[in-house]
């Protein structure tokens, strides 16, 4: 069978490497894919405004102050950082510095990262299965709804995905020749991915290491040694920033938001590490399958990736990818150890299965958009398996697997589309009928149809991507804002756990308050508890606003003594109590102590219906 025999790169790929030539259709097809992806991701970019105002405020701060840029501060006064490392903010803030800061220039790098991820995925898959597989993989990634969401949003996930795909490309190059240099480059990309979203970046490492250990064409100990070099490269490329934060005097830099001891390592292994997996403070809430829980992944378990919360984000082609993976591993079971096709299957399956298992069973905070990290692996497995199985379509085994993939995709798309029954209700029937029809033709034997073969192949692919493509278009044409967003058509009023308008943002416009804060000339124009009001005021006024307690108001910074010292030095002008950025009841004792001290020491004034304390005018005694 075709997959069994394909222990070397396809003929077209070998020819490309030898002569630099490629089939004439490859270049225009790739250009069309990348152009279409760019148009899709750049269309009406910025229509969602500041997207996640938490990160947008940090990007703005990075355009105003270089120290804020370096550390990822939420405010230009450098009180506290966001609860993620700053790599993604670096890119967006540099774009704002060069082109001027606004919603479009902030999101422009994110969209370009999406185009880059599609291009690199194409190049990676092409190395093992040829350009047709690469184009299918790139198309599947571009049309994954959650990818369209995150590559048009300002969360760190866009840069994370790009860096992981780049690392996969480096690792495939390394596996082909056992090149230590390519392994080191993969480690470097993973290190910077850590500086984007911490330990999530390392979920792909088992798959990468397994592929190299199995298939690299050198002895075992040389393979182990090369991986050790890659690990060292990963540690160095991530560790330089950890060392910088640790060695920088704590009093001269912002507090590390989300940590308990002002440490980046504690943030990595605590709030963004063990707590995410094992649960704890800040974990998901709400009833299973409904309410706020919809934004926190739903119930943990083997079905989470297919559930009401996550299913329509990235799982459209997941059943087919799993079928293709099993078939690919079976048909390549007798290939030589260094077979590139099996190495690619091991790499992408390791990425998919490890990341998918962690997302499925973690008990801590998780959001549906995290599934964007699965999209490249799903897309790659689809491209590889469909292309290799299509080569063996003259045999019953590959035909049967292709038919199963087509029918399963249609049935699963029907189920997912049925979750939004009022949105394009006919689409689910069209996709189901078309996919089943294509499966039937494949079982009978598409190789017997002569010139109609190409039509059947194109039809099967269109029906396969039709449903996610429609959901992707709905994602692009809708607006999305706040810390908790979901792909697809609008599901009504999406409110955050704290009851604020939408999933983020201050509940009411208050021009008087904005004018008051914008007119202050102190280091921090105002201070408030949590990030929600702080971020909104910063974006509306350009002033620096201190978010006491960080994102949810639960961080132990600043202390009461520190805040009193800031006020005594005239560094904070106003205090606005009571609006947090997270679930109710999550404010720290520090935040409560500061609020109580301000209320006892300063008189309240009403500004457009909001209570404000002028910290330059204490109560007369």
Biggest sheet, spatial arrangement of strands: 2-1-3-5-4
Q: Total number of β-strand segments?
A: 5
How far apart the termini lie comes to 91 Å
Note poorly predicted spans. 1-19, 282-292, 492-507, 580-585
| Approximate strand percentage | under 5%
Shape summary: globular
Mean pLDDT: 89
- Radius of gyration of CA atoms, rounded to a whole number: 26 Å
- Give helix % range: 55-70%
Order of helices and strands: HHHHHHHHHHHHHHHHHHHHHHEHEHEHEE
Number of helical stretches of at least 4 residues? 25
The class by helix and strand makeup works out as mainly alpha
Main beta sheet: strand number and arrangement? 5 strands, mixed
What key phrases describe this protein's structure?
transmembrane helix, 5 strands, 25 helices, mainly alpha, 58% helix, 5-stranded mixed sheet, transferase, globular, 621 residues, Glycosyltransferase family 39 protein, LipidA_mod_glycosyltrf_83
């Amino acid at each position: 069978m075709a997959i069994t025999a394909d222990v070397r790169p396809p003929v077209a790929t070998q020819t490309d490497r030898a002569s630099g030539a490629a089939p004439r259709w490859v270049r225009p097809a790739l250009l069309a894919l990348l152009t279409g992806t760019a148009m899709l991701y750049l269309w009406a970019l910025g229509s969602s405004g500041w997207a996640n105002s938490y990160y947008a405020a940090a990007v703005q701060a990075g355009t105003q102050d270089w120290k804020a840029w370096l550390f990822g501060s939420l405010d230009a006064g450098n009180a506290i950082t966001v609860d993620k490392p700053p790599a993604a903010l670096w890119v967006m803030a540099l774009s704002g510095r060069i082109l001027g800061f606004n919603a479009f220039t902030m999101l422009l790098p994110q969209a370009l990262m999406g185009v880059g991820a599609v291009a690199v995925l194409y190049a990676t898959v092409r190395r093992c299965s040829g350009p047709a597989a690469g184009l299918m993989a790139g198309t599947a990634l571009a049309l994954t709804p959650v990818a369209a969401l995150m590559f048009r949003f300002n969360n760190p996930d866009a840069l994370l995905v790009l860096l992981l795909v780049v690392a996969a490309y480096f690792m495939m190059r390394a596996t082909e020749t056992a090149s230590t240099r390519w392994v080191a480059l993969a480690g470097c990309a993973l290190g910077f991915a850590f500086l984007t979203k911490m330990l999530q970046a390392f979920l792909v490492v088992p798959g990468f290491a397994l592929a190299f250990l199995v298939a690299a064409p050198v002895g075992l100990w040389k393979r182990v040694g090369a991986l050790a070099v890659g690990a060292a490269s990963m540690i160095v490329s991530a560790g330089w920033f950890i060392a910088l934060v640790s060695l920088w005097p704590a009093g001269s830099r912002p507090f590390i938001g989300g940590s308990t001891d002002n440490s980046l390592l504690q943030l990595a292994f605590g709030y963004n590490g063990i707590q995410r997996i094992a649960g704890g403070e800040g974990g998901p809430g709400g009833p299973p399958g409904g309410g706020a829980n919809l934004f926190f992944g739903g119930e943990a378990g083997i079905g989470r990736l297919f559930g009401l919360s996550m299913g329509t984000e990235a799982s459209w082609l997941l059943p087919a990818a799993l079928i293709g993976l099993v078939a690919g591993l079976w048909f390549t079971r007798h290939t030589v150890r260094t077979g590139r096709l099996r190495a690619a299957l091991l790499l992408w399956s390791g990425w998919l299965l490890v990341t998918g298992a962690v997302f499925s069973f973690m008990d801590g905070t998780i959001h549906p958009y995290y599934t964007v990290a699965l999209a490249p692996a799903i897309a790659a497995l689809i491209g590889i398996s469909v292309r290799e199985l299509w080569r063996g379509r003259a045999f019953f085994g590959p035909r049967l697997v292709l038919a199963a993939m087509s029918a399963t995709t249609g049935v699963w798309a029907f189920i997912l589309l049925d979750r939004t029954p009022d949105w394009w209700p006919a689409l689910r029937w069209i996709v189901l009928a078309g996919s089943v029809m294509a499966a039937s033709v494949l079982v009978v034997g598409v190789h017997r149809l002569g010139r109609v073969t190409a039509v059947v192949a194109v039809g099967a692919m269109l029906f396969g991507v039709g449903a996610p493509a429609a959901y992707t278009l709905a994602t692009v044409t809708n607006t999305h804002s706040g810390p908790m967003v979901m792909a697809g058509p609008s599901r009504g009023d999406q409110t955050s756990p704290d009851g604020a308008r939408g999933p983020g943002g201050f509940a009411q416009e208050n021009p008087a308050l904005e004018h008051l804060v914008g007119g202050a000339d102190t280091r921090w124009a105002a201070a408030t508890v949590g990030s929600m009001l702080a971020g909104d005021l910063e974006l509306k006024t350009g002033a620096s606003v201190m978010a006491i307690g960080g994102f949810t108001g639960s961080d132990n910074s600043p202390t009461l003594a520190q805040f009193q010292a800031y006020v005594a030095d005239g560094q904070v002008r106003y205090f606005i109590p009571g609006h947090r950025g997270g679930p109710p009841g999550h404010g720290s004792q520090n935040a409560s102590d500061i609020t109580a001290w301000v209320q006892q020491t300063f008189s309240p004034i009403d500004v457009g219906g909001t209570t404000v304390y002028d910290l330059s005018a204490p109560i007369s005694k």
